[in-house]
Amino acid sequence: MVTARSPAAASPRMLGGRADARPARWRRQLGAKLALLPLTAVVIVVYLGCMLWTVRLSFSSSKLLPVGDWAGLQQYERLFANDRFLLSAINIGIFGVLFIGGCLVFGFLLAVFIDQRVRAEGVLRTVFLFPHAMSLVVTGLAWQWFLNPTLGLQKLVRDLGFAGFTFDWIVNQQMVIYTLVIAGIWQASGLVMAILLAGLRGVDEDLWKAARVDGIPAWRVYLSIALPLIGPMVVTATVLLAVQVVKLYDLVVAMTRGGPGIASEVPAKFVMDHLFERNNIGLATAAASMMLVTVVAILAPWIYARYVRETGRRT
Amino acid sequence: MTTPLTANVPSGRRPRRVGIARIGIYAFLLTSAAFFLLPLWIMVTTSLKPRAEVWEGNILALPAEFTVEPWIKAWSEACTGLDCNGISVGFWNSVQILIPSLVLSILAGAVNGYALSFWRVRGANLLFGILLAGAFIPYQVFLYPLVRLFSQAGIYNSLACIVIVHVVFGMPIMTLLFRNFYASLPVELFNAARIDGGGFWTIFTHVLLPMSAPIIVVATILQVTGIWNDFIFGLTFAGRENLPMTVQLNNIVNSTQGERAYNVDMAATILTALVPLAVYFLSGRWFVRGIAAGAVKG
Fold first, then answer.
1. Are A94 and A208 in the same domain?
2. Do A65 and A86 belong together in one domain?
3. Are residues A82 and A28 in the same domain?
4. Are residues A186 and A284 in the same domain?
5. Which of A72, A96, A124 is the last residue of a domain?
6. ipTM
7. Could you give the number of structural domains in chain A?
8. For A299, which of B136, B168, B269 is closest by C-beta distance?
9. Which residues of chain A have a CB within 8 Å of the CB of B148?
10. How confident is the model at residue A309 (pLDDT cuts 50, 70, 90)?
11. B220: buried, middle or exposed (CB in 10 Å: 19+, 13-18, 0-12)?
12. Is the minimum CB–CB distance between B272 and chain A shorter than 8 Å?
C-alpha cells in the first residue's frame, strides 16, 4: 500500500494524471523484475564486473597477489617482450587461418557433395558430425595416439613397405601446430557442413532449373550463385570458428601439452599457466585482455553488419 | 557456335559423364567418411588389444587376441597420481556436476526467456544484449576474478562452485533458446491468461511450461554435451574432490610415468566420450537442431 500512495504524495504535480496508473503497472511487473534479478546479477557481476576487474588488474603490478596500484602499460611491455607469448600469438595466427580456411572449404565441399541426392544421406551426415559431440580432450588424445610416430601412422606406413616414410609432425617443433589444425578440422568441419547444407537446401529450386536450362555446369552454379546466396551462413560459420580459435585450450593441453618445448603454446594456455602455476597475475590478465581485444575486433564488424546497419536500413 | 544447340539437345555422351561424376561424388564422400571414422576405429581396436599387440601389431588391425581387460582397468584401476581407482571416479563426479547444473541452467533459461519475451521490463533487452555478447568472450577473461569471488564466499573448489559456474556460463545460450521459442508462440495465448487474472508465475507454470517440451529437449541435449565435455571450468573450479571425467582422463593419460598403457588410455578415452556420443546417436535430428540454435555458443 505504501508503494501505491507514496509517488503521488511525493510529487503530485509532476506525475499528474498518471499517478495511479504507474504504481499499478510497476506492481504488475514486479514478478518479471524479480525473475530477472539473477540475470541482472550475472550480467553486472560476471560479464561486466569480472571483465573490467581483469582489465584493471592488467594495468597493475600484481604478481602472486592482486594489488591495486597503477603500473601503466608495464605488463603489456613485458608481455610483448615475452618469447612464449609472441610464439603463442604466432601459433594462434597460423592455427586460425588454416583451421578456419580448412573447415570452410572442407565443410562446403561436404555440404555440396551431400546435396547431390546421394544414398544414405542420413548416415553420412551422422558420420561427418559425430566428432562435434565429443570433448576436445577426447579428440586431442585420439589424434595424439594416431599421430604418435613410434606406434601410429608412421609405423603403419613403414610396415606396409615404405621404410623411409616419416610423419613425425607431433614431435617436430616446426610442424606440431599443423597436427592441431588436422585435429581441429576433424572436430569442426561437420558443423560447417551442417550449417551450409541447411543454407543450400534453402536456395530457391527455380534457380537450379534456370541454370540447367542455360546449360551452366553444376560446379559453376554452386560457386557463382549458391555460394553468394548462402553468404550470411558462411559468415556465421566463420565467426563461430574464429571464436573457437581464440578459446583454443583443451585440445592443446590434451594433444601436445604445448610441446615439444613451447612449440605449440597458445594464448589461452599462456593465461591459464600464468594464473594458476606461475602466479603472475599481472602478466596473465594482460594476456587475457589481449584475447578480449582480439574477440572484440572479430565481433564488432559482424555485429555492426548484422544488427546496427540492418536496423539503420529499416528505419 | 554450337553451344546453344548442344545445350538444348542432350547428346548421347551425357549419361556416361553423369556416371563418372556419380562415382567421383561417392569416392569423395566415402573417403571423407573414412577420415572421420579413422580415429574412432583405432580408439576402439586399440582398447580391445592386449598390451603386447599394441606395441607390435598394426594400429588399424582388429585385435588378434580380443580382450576387455583394458576397459576394466580403465574403469576401476587406472591411476591419477597416487590414486588408482580408475576413471569411474571422474564419471560419478561428472554425473554429480551434470544433474544440478542441467536442471538449474534450464530453469534459469526458461524463466529468463519467459520474462524477456512476454514482459516488457525496461532495460531488459540491454541486459540480454550484454549477456549474448558475453557468450563470445574467452573464459580466461573472467576466471581470475571469479576465483577471488568464490574464495571470498568460501565455496571455491566445491561442487556448489562448479555448478554455479556452469549455470552462469550456460545462461546466454539457455536464455536465447527459450526467449526465441516463447517469442514464436502466439501472444494471444499470453493475453488470454492475463485477462483470466494469471500472475507472472501462474502463467509460467500453468500455461507456458507445459508447452515447452520440445525446447527443453533441445536445451537438455545442448547442456548435457556441453557440461560433460567441459574441461577448463572443471579444472579451475571443481576442486580435487570433484574433478570431472575430462580432467581426470587428461590426468590419467598425460601424467603417466614410464611406459604408457595405450590400450587402457584408449578405453578410458572412449568411456569419457560415451555419454555425449550416446546423446548424439539417440537424439539424431534434435542434436542438429540444438547446434543450429546453439550456434552462438561457439
1. yes
2. no
3. no
4. yes
5. A72
6. 0.85
7. 2
8. B136
9. 66
10. low
11. middle
12. yes
The three three-digit cell numbers of residue A216, written as one number: 551452366
Q: Taking Cα atoms as reference points, which of B32, B84, B73 lies closest to residue B51?
A: B73
Quick one: which of B230, B91, B250 has its CA closest to B163? Answer: B230
Question: Which residue ranges of chain B lie beneath pLDDT 70?
Answer: 1-18, 256-258, 291-298
Contact between B147 and B211 under an 8 Å Cβ cutoff? The reply is: no
C-alpha–C-alpha distance, residues A34 and A141, integer Å = 46
**H helix runs in A256-308, sequence order:** 267-276, 281-303
Domain extent for A25 = 2-72
User: Of A39, A72, A105, which marks where a domain is finished?
Assistant: A72
Residues in chain A with CB shorter than 8 Å from the CB of B55 are: 151
CATH of the domain at A264: 1.10.3720.10
Cβ distance A295 to B138 less than 8 Å, yes or no, reads: yes
Q: How would DSSP label each residue in A168-235? A: -GGG-TTTHHHHHHHHHHHHHHHHHHHHHHHHHHTS-HHHHHHHHHTT--HHHHIIIIIHHHTHHHHH
Indicate the residue of B37, B108, B291 with minimum beta-carbon distance to A194: B291
Higher pLDDT pick, A62 / B243: B243
A51 with A93, same domain? no
User: Quick one: cell of A21?
Assistant: 496508473
Segment 209-238 of chain B within 8 Å of chain A by CB: 225, 228-232, 236
Nearest to B198 by CA among B125, B118, B124, B122: B118
- Do A138 and A189 sit in the same domain of this protein? yes
The verdict on A235 and A93 lying in the same domain is yes
How far apart CA B235 and CA B229 sit, in angstroms, is: 12
Q: Are A129 and A195 in the same domain? A: yes
d(CA B90, CA B102): 17
Per-residue model confidence as pLDDT tens digits over A11-44: 333 333 444 556 666 667 788 888 899 999 999 9
B221-258 pLDDT, tens digit per residue, is: 989 999 999 999 999 999 888 999 999 999 988 876 66
